[in-house]
Amino acid sequence: MKIIGKIGKGKVEVNEKTKFSILLNNVAKKADIAEGKRAVEDIIRVIYRHQPISTKKIAQKTRLPLPIVAKVRTILEREKILKRTERGAELTDLGKEFAENFLKLKYKKSLTCKTCNGRGIVLDEFFEDILNKVRVWAKRRPLVDTTIDQSFATPETSTYRAALMYERGDLEGKRILFVGDDDLTSLPTALTNMAEEIAVVDIDERILKLIEKFSQKEGVKIKTIKHDLRNPLPQDLKERFDVISTDPPYTVDGLKLFLSRGIEALGKEGIAYLSYSHKPIDEWLSIQKAITNMGFVISELIPNFNYYEGSEIIANTTFIARLVGKNLKINIGDTEKIYTGLVKPVIRYYKCLKCGKIHKVGEEVKKVEDLVCECGGKKFKMIKREKLKNE
Amino acid sequence: MKIIGKIGKGKVEVNEKTKFSILLNNVAKKADIAEGKRAVEDIIRVIYRHQPISTKKIAQKTRLPLPIVAKVRTILEREKILKRTERGAELTDLGKEFAENFLKLKYKKSLTCKTCNGRGIVLDEFFEDILNKVRVWAKRRPLVDTTIDQSFATPETSTYRAALMYERGDLEGKRILFVGDDDLTSLPTALTNMAEEIAVVDIDERILKLIEKFSQKEGVKIKTIKHDLRNPLPQDLKERFDVISTDPPYTVDGLKLFLSRGIEALGKEGIAYLSYSHKPIDEWLSIQKAITNMGFVISELIPNFNYYEGSEIIANTTFIARLVGKNLKINIGDTEKIYTGLVKPVIRYYKCLKCGKIHKVGEEVKKVEDLVCECGGKKFKMIKREKLKNE
Asked: N or C terminus: which one in chain A shows less Cβ crowding within 10 Å?
């Protein structure tokens, strides 16, 4: 909102406008977030339209990271703009004034299509049946390995991805490679029995074994290859695929690396489905420049397409983009900095569900999977996350 | 489809595969189109899924220009892959074999959401009422001036654009500039009574007069400014808007110019809604590079969002992209080459609806509006379009 020109009629209005303008600036400053005032405005608008609303839902609808939303919400509570009730965040009378008189909000309806949840496509019976099968298999997944930025998409998400590939003509008769597949998108894809060939490269043997068991049981064919993507693809995977699908680590170098391996698989041209986190503009801009420099065009970008299980603090919702490539060229950055934990080391605190003891994960113990409590407990819940400052 | 490796069991299959592969190559070569084999595959897939289907619908679903689709369809008819019935294009038995045995198509359902037609948003009652008003006003539009690439979006399209702006938080309390508005998107936007300020710059006085009449009659405020966008914006429009909306000429220079004028209006940061034609990859890539170089990020891109009236040959459906800008900088190319007619001069043939005489438009007579038949007829129908080769 650009504040320009005449400031209304009376003195009262001038004061209120100035007061709210200063308040907005202060909140943005205190929250210290890349998107500044716009993010604060977005959060207030979403609460105004959907209150009472949970912090997680605010994050989904604003496409802002959950910790940012939580921080802004706390500051807004202190400023008496918001109050927290059992059912979620609500605007106070002051907050309502702020929303209506200053931000000029008045209408509360959401126009997002309820049939498709804004994705633009829906599952028919055939894909619904596939989803039901995927749900069963997804329960057998191992625990996430956060050191390699694992974070599992919901079975619904992976099935919608397969449906989107079908709808756009990128599934029937096509050779498809999954560049990393902790999301198990190869499962619904294989269950369609539409692809000419499906292959998965992943560094995590646990994921590959699950996919192999699945293939055996369901009578489908998925080639699995254990491979560290920091190294070039094996020769027999090169230049033989029509389509690749990836949900890489959410760093610029992670994106460049995974897409480059995808390009090795595609050769000079092909289609890439990229799932990626909503990012602050500066980072977003480097990412889009990297994408176009590799020779990919963004032919479609659907926000809030992907939802994830478990670690909702890290990734609650991301977009999917369909990239069309011609004269593709690989572009690999610093392969040592691809995981977010390496860029910004993170300590996670887990609570033992048996005795309640708090454990640190991220220094000596690297993965929650390696954690065993002194009481013998093996189930934990993440309660806090902390970024370590880089030296 | 990459054709690799083993070619099946028997001799018959080898021959068929080879035959169809040669056929696909030949059709793509004869059609001489930028997207090559993929475009031909896309056309066959859309016919397979939706037959019988009109050429216009094929163009919409494949996002290919109508003349290209018509050309490929004619070649496919000659090759006995397609037949034309009263109800549209259908595959022959040979075509079905081609689709099922070679392209490996088998499933025919469309997963595009029928509620929102793939747009991801729907109009509620409030916006439906607005649409009904816009429909009435749209009937009063002048004839399109094709020398400045006019082509009117449907009232539904312009109302959906306003709805999208609302849904994304870019309407309430915002200052919005329409950089060119032959689509009359300012009308539904103003009817919401949500914006802080609405302004329109356009070179066509007829459009501005209609908007002025509308504002007077409907009691809304839209500032209209007659302006040739090849010149910088008037000083009092600079750096005062939060959001711009544009559907520029579909040339790289047209896009750069219109977005740059938008940046003058926004200042360092802001939101842009860009409607633009689905283009062949090479051109698309220059366009996306131009967008990111100006400092805009594509935060969302919805294909087939916009539909146009009348000149369906030129533009049947285009996408809308929501761009978010930070540290924006203008980037103006060759302002003399912004209109497609100047890049590739086009002759249009119009038939008088009274006497049937055919008239040429594009050389001496520049606009269909200037055309009067010797019989006195003033209503014409475009029947053919021809590109002149540039010297």
From this structure: C
Pair of tokens at residue A249:
């680590």
CA–CA separation, A171 and A193 (whole Å): 9
Count other Cβ atoms within 10 Å, centred on residue A281. Answer: 19
How many C-beta neighbours within 10 Å does residue A22 have?
10
CB proximity B284 to A under 8 Å = yes
Q: Do B72 and B39 touch, CB atoms closer than 8 A?
A: yes
DSSP A98: I
CB contact under 8 A, B122 and A105: no
For B78, counting Cβ atoms within 10 Å of its Cβ (0-12 exposed, 13-18 middle, 19+ buried), the class is exposed
Find, in chain B, the residue whose alpha carbon is nearest to that of A267.
B2
DSSP state of A53: B
CA atoms within 13 A on the CB side of B68: 26
Question: In a mutagenesis test of the B interface, which of A21, A63, A297 is the best target, namely the one with the most B β-carbons within 10 Å?
Answer: A297
Q: Where are the domains of chain A?
A: 11-102, 125-337, 344-387
Rounded Cα gap, residues B81 and B95, in angstroms: 4
Residue of A239, A267, A300 lying closest to B301 (CB–CB): A300
* Token couple for B288: 């996306």
Q: Determine the distance from the C-alpha atom of residue B269 to the mean position of all C-alpha atoms in its chain, rounded to a whole number.
A: 26
Region for residue A219 given its phi and psi (left: phi exceeds 0; alpha: psi -120 to 50; beta: otherwise): left
CATH topology of domain A11-102: Arc Repressor Mutant, subunit A (1.10.10)
Per-residue pLDDT of chain B (391 residues; tens, 9 = 90+): 776 655 444 455 567 788 888 888 888 888 887 778 889 999 999 999 999 999 888 988 998 888 889 899 999 999 999 998 888 999 999 999 999 999 999 999 999 999 999 999 999 999 999 999 999 999 888 776 666 666 789 999 999 999 999 999 999 999 999 999 999 999 999 999 999 999 999 999 999 999 999 999 999 999 999 999 999 999 999 999 999 999 999 889 999 999 999 999 999 999 999 999 988 888 999 999 999 999 999 999 999 999 988 655 544 789 999 999 999 999 988 777 777 665 556 677 888 888 888 888 777 776 777 788 888 887 887 777 666 544 3
- CA pair distance A69, A75, nearest whole angstrom: 10
Classify domain B125-337 at the CATH topology level.
Rossmann fold (3.40.50)
Look up residue B347 and give its DSSP letter.
E
Q: Give DSSP secondary structure letters for A217-241.
A: HHT---EEEE--TTSPPPGGGTT--
Give Cα B32 to chain centroid, integer Å: 22
Residue B52: asked if its preceding bond is cis (omega within 30°), the reply is: yes
HSE-CB for B111 with a 13 A CA cutoff: 23
Separation CA A252–CA A289 (nearest Å)? 10
Q: How far is B181 from chain A (nearest CA, A)?
A: 22
